[in-house]
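[[Per-residue structure]]
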Amino acid sequence: MSRRSDTKKARRNKRRAKRDANWVPDSALDGLDERLDDVVSDLEEFDARLTERGWTFDVDHDDDAGVIWYWPPSFAEVDDPDELTTATLVALVEAEGGEIAHVVFVGTDADYQFDLDELFDHLDVIEAYRRGDPLPTFDDA
């Protein structure tokens, strides 16, 4: 083959590889809108349950990794805000499908994990925590 033919073939293969990398089979698309609607609905309901209690959605957080709510009454000065949270927070991580609620208490880096319904069983204890208090224990966490 000529050099020109090799170059043309390489460009064509590159286009095909890029197209194939972004291609989603029809079987995977079936019901995707419905599943997406369910996820959005669940997230909206979760948000409503938290914000009704006074939690604040963190709009400044880089949401590429997930979403965060914080508990305003728990705000406190911490020695290293880059390492420790300045308020108790609840986070849902996108890589986990938003199925696990991560709770990090103000002034700590300890990560407590709950399933979404279980979180609401423990919110009274979570909201009562203030910096300097002994960390709560959860029998089933």
